[in-house]
Design brief:
single chain, alpha+beta, four-stranded antiparallel beta sheet, 26 strands, 30% helix
């Protein structure tokens, strides 16, 4: 009986909110109640708790640990399954597929009873901090929280773990965050309410809310996202090692070198030295050294346990929940891959499709619905004045790689792959707070493709590109419009010289009506520029915070995605730039970026000067005539009314 205490405690503690976890000051560790990933005696995996949602329409596996040879009986919804724990203490049973049920039922595992378990659809939330961003921190988040009375939506956030070894489970705990200076409760299934939803992913909550409102079935969301992470850390290491491209191999070699060269003792010596220097400076300035600051004495694991070591987050945060029956996944990531130029974006493209396949395999469904949410905005807005300078940004190429991955799968017949642009939810911060519209847009994809609702979601695509009489003509697969019916912006075009310029974009004129007015075809977009007499390629929404306003015309705001027709390397537009090779790799990339941006800024200035000169030449004579006319009219009026 003693051996089952930990697991029984995990059931009894479910639903208890430790209010001090939300205090602004860090709690002492002894005040944090934790339940380990694997307990002694009979133990159920922490995925399975009271208040959870089990996936409908698929066989559902339930598993855990017990003494070797111990018989386990699992009973739920009229089904009873038996098994025995193997020599490694592991046991698993699989229940047959079930229909959705909003009635809370008991899931009985021998001596353990989990209560209020529902059957519906379970969705995985993946990515980094822009998926992780909680509803309480976003625009209109307080409104969403106040109305979050959805007892049939259940939420679970997976705690962060590290290390290359695949984890079998996850603990239930209060996880300290240096970023927000507080504890976050993780590892527990909660019933959605205004009080519990505050820490849930904003995108994930809005997504779940829409699905539940539409289908009226229980919805479970499991958030596995983690801030500051890369695509390679979310991909199994054995998958990465099979990708035979120079960029991926270089990344793996780079990490192997880091790990091999790590010296924990030397690191400690350097930290002690830096600490002593800091203390000496404090005393020299007459300042008191805070009591909590102590001389470092711990040996750090270094890059071995780094969250971005290739494969680490997959092993420590996704592998622990692998094998669970789920409906699908949505994924929002990219920021931490936007820092390595062409090599980095090519590596992302080589990995991303393989990552999606690996996630589908982890949940036992090669056709699992998976929606890509593209990289969000950051930095100052792109304008006509800084247009070219803003076209140089690593993030744009990551966004392109995400869209290309979607196209690869979609055009190969994958009916369960989705794509949602987020670049039009513009904010200058790298954590743009406009998350509610992104969640709504992602829900539209799911409702259309997985729940057979008549909702437009597919990004518009061009089916053909013509180059004719100094113009590029794009043939679209659907009717288009510009937001607010304003002039179309967001396109740039270039000729053989690779000098891009913002394009004058408009609808194709197919003829004139009987009143000699142009008849426009809104399924064709024409691109031209006086600065590019012979264009051969286009780019669209080519900025981290881009000018772009072209969307589907069917009462939606689904954007034409970030894309281009050329394949020119980032560092070779308009021409190849050579930097100082004696610099470190990181400094070299920054130096190249500075050189290219300086060149593009000069091109922006040159174009603006030409446009200003043309404006003066075209309007000077008109201005003089208008000024002369106004002066004559004023003189006449002065003479006429001077005596009054």
């Amino acid at each position: 009986m003693k051996k089952t205490i930990l697991c029984i405690l995990s059931i009894l503690l479910l639903g208890i909110v430790i209010t001090s976890a939300f205090a602004k000051e860090k709690m002492p560790r002894e005040d944090v109640i934790e339940v380990p990933a694997i307990g002694e005696g009979l133990c159920v995996h922490n995925l399975f708790q009271s208040n959870m949602v089990l996936q409908r329409g698929k066989p559902v596996s339930i598993w855990g640990w017990a003494d070797p040879g111990k018989e386990i009986t699992v009973t739920f919804a009229g089904q009873t399954k038996k098994t025995k724990a193997d020599k490694d203490r592991k046991w698993k049973v699989t229940l047959g597929a079930m229909e959705a049920s909003s009635e809370g039922q008991d899931l009985v595992i021998s001596s353990i009873t989990l209560t209020n378990v529902l059957v519906g659809d379970v969705w995985i939330l993946g990515g980094q901090s822009n998926m992780e961003e909680p509803i309480q921190h976003v625009e209109f988040g307080r409104l969403e929280m106040a109305t979050a009375n959805f007892p049939e939506i259940r939420i679970l956030t997976i705690p962060a773990q590290n290390g290359p070894e695949p984890k079998e489970g996850f603990p239930r705990l209060h996880e300290w965050s240096d970023w927000s200076n507080r504890h976050w409760r993780k590892g527990d299934w909660d019933i959605c309410s205004p009080e519990t939803v505050r820490e849930l992913s904003a995108i994930g909550y809005v997504f779940a809310r829409r699905l539940h409102m539409s289908e009226k079935v229980p919805i479970g969301v499991i958030d596995t996202s983690r801030g500051g992470t890369t695509v390679e850390t979310w991909t199994p290491i054995d998958v990465l090692k099979k990708i035979d491209t120079p960029e991926v191999k270089a990344k793996l070699d780079e990490w192997e070198t880091k790990i091999a060269e790590w010296d924990a003792k030397k690191d400690l010596e350097n930290r002690i030295k830096n600490f002593n220097n800091w203390v000496a400076d404090m005393k020299k300035r007459g300042e008191k050294v805070p009591e909590h600051r102590k001389v470092p004495g711990d040996l750090r694991p270094g890059p071995t346990m780094d969250q971005n070591r290739p494969g680490n987050c997959y092993s420590s945060m996704l592998h622990p929940i692998a094998g669970l029956s789920v409906k699908g996944a949505i994924f929002h990531q990219g920021y931490n891959n936007a820092n390595s130029g062409t090599a980095g974006s090519q590596m992302y493209y080589h990995i991303f499709g393989k990552m999606i396949t690996a996630w589908r395999a982890a949940f036992g469904d090669p056709k699992m619905p998976f929606c890509i949410i593209s990289l969000c905005t950051a930095g100052p807005p792109q304008t006509r004045d800084n247009y070219l300078e803003m076209m140089y940004d690593d993030g744009i190429y990551i966004r392109e790689a995400q869209y290309k991955t979607f196209l690869d799968l979609y055009k190969a017949g994958d009916k369960n792959i989705g794509f949602v642009s987020s670049f039009d939810q513009r904010r200058s911060w790298y954590h743009p707070q406009k998350k509610v519209p992104v969640g709504e847009r992602t829900a539209a994809w799911a409702l259309a493709t997985q729940y057979e609702k008549n909702i437009p979601w597919l990004p518009p695509m061009y089916t053909k590109m013509e180059v004719k009489e100094g113009k590029i003509i794009l043939h679209m697969d659907t009717w288009m419009r510009s937001l607010d019916d304003s002039p179309i912006v967001g396109f740039a075009i270039a000729g053989e010289d690779r000098n891009f310029q913002p394009a004058d974009a408009g609808w194709f004129v197919r003829g004139m009506d009987r009143h000699n007015r142009p008849q426009h075809d809104r399924r064709k977009v024409t691109l031209s520029s006086p600065h590019v007499p012979e264009p051969i390629h286009f780019r669209y929404a080519w900025g981290r915070n881009p000018m772009a306003n072209l969307v589907r015309a069917d009462h939606t705001t689904v954007p034409f995605a970030t894309q281009r027709s050329d394949d020119w390397k980032q560092e070779e537009v308009p021409e190849k730039v050579y930097g100082d090779k004696s610099r470190s790799k990181r400094d070299y990339n920054r130096h190249i970026q500075w050189l290219v941006k300086r060149r593009l800024k000069q091109e922006d200035t040159a174009r603006r000067l030409k446009e200003a000169q043309t404006f003066i030449e075209v309007n000077k004579e008109k201005y003089e005539k208008e000024r002369e006319s106004l002066e004559k009219e004023n003189a006449r009026n002065r003479e006429r009314f001077s005596g009054q």
